[in-house]
Amino acid sequence: MIAYTSTSTVTLAEARTRYTSGRGYLAACTLGLPTIETIAAMRADTEAWAGGQACASRYGEVVERVRVGYADLVNVTPHSVAIGSQTSVMAGLVAASIPDGAEVVLPRGDFSSMVFPFLAQAHRGVTVRQVDLADLATSLTANTWLVAFSLVQSATGTLADSDAIRAAARATGTFTLCDTTQATGWMPVDASLFDATICHSYKWLGAPRGVGFFTVAETFAAQLHPINAGWYAGDDLWASCYGPAMALASDARRFDVSPAWPAWVGAEPAIDLFRRLDLAEVATHNVALGDALCDGLDLPRLGQAIISWPDAGGRDLARLTAAGITASGRAGRARVAFHLWNDRDDVDAVLDALRRG
Q1: What residue stretches are annotated with the Aminotransferase class V domain (predicted)?
Q2: Is the pTM higher than 0.85?
Q3: 30 within a domain of the structure (yes/no)
C-alpha cells in the first residue's frame, strides 16, 4: 500500500486537476467525488486482496495515518480522534452517556442523525428541546447538559453561529457537540473549539462512505461511556483482542469502532489532499459560485457553498436533472452545492436549465 503523507501544499488549481469529472456535478453535499489518487488506491487494494496479499496489520497502519492526517486537518491531536463509520453511531455514543433526566438543546430541522439518537433517550427522562437555529445560543440555560448541532445545515446550507453558541455554552456550563460533516472540506474547521465533533468524510472530503471521525476533549471524554467498545478500542489491538478482561485505550481510541478497511485505503489520499489545501481559499471559491447563483436567482447573497430554494413539487429539481445536472432535493427545497471541481460554467448551466422551464 502506498503511504499518502506529505507536508507540501496543494493549490486550488492543482487540486482541480485531481478529478476525472465534475462538470454539472453539484452534489458534494450528498456524495463527494473521488480523486484520481483515491480511485487508484482502491483499485490497487482490491487487486492485492484478490491476490491474497491483503494484510490486517498494514490496514491498521493506514487507519493510523488517516487518523493523524485528519487531526492535522481540524487542529487537534491524534490522541483526541476516534474513528467510526456512521454519524448516528457516534452521536449515539454521546446520547447514551447523557445523565438520566438531563436536557439537550438541538436546532429545529437538523439532520436526523443528529436528532434521533437524542430523542431515543426519552425512556431515561432525557429532555430534548428543539429551537430555531438562530435562537440556539440564547436558548441555553444552566439546566442544559448538551447542545448538539451541525455547523452547516444539510437542508439549507445555513452556517450556525458557532462563536455565539460556544460563548453561551461556556456561560451555562453546557457541553458542545458539533457535526462538521457539511463543513469540513470546503471551509476551515477547528474541532478543538468544541467538546466533541463528528464528521463523516464521504461528502466534501471525497472519501469512501464508511470513514467517520469523532474528536473529543479529555474533560468531555471522561463523561462518556464506550458503549461500542470492541476489539479496535483495545489498548493494544493484537494483545487485547480476546477476553475475559477488558483493557481499553486510555485516549480517544477507546471510542473507536472497527474500521471497514478498504474504505480507509481510499480515504488516505483524500484526507491528505484536503489537509494540504488552503481551505480559506476553497471556501472563497465555493462561496463565490454560490453567491453568483443567488444573484442569478434574485436571492440575497448567503455566503454559502450550499444553495437551496423552495421547490415543494420538485419542478426545479426535475429541470436540473433533465439538463444533465446532478443536484438534490431536501425538505421541500431544491439544493445545489459548489466545490473544487465546479466553476462559473456550472452556475450558468443551472440558471439556463431553470430559465428553459
Answers
A1: 55-298
A2: yes
A3: no
Split into its structural domains, the chain has a count of 2
Q: Which domain holds residue 263?
A: 58-274
Of 92, 283, 117, 98, the C-alpha closest to 189 is 283
284 and 212 share one domain:
no
Q: Which long-range contacts (CB under 8 A, 24 or more apart) does 17-21 make?
A: 18/273, 19/340, 19/341, 21/341
Place of cell 489532499: 273
Tell whether 256 and 331 lie within a shared domain. no
Report the run of H or E that residue 282 belongs to, with start and end.
helix 279-296
pLDDT tens by residue, the chain, 357 residues:
555 555 679 999 999 999 998 999 999 999 999 999 999 999 999 999 999 999 999 999 999 999 999 999 999 999 999 999 999 999 999 999 999 999 999 999 999 999 999 999 999 999 999 999 999 999 999 999 999 999 999 999 999 999 999 999 999 999 999 999 999 999 999 999 999 999 999 999 999 999 999 999 999 999 999 999 999 999 988 888 888 888 999 999 999 999 999 999 999 999 999 999 999 999 999 999 999 999 999 999 999 999 999 999 999 999 999 999 999 998 899 999 999 999 999 999 999 999 986
Write the CB contacts of 96 (distance below 8 Å, at least 6 apart in sequence): 117, 121, 225, 227
Single out the residue in 225, 251, 274 at which a domain terminates.
274
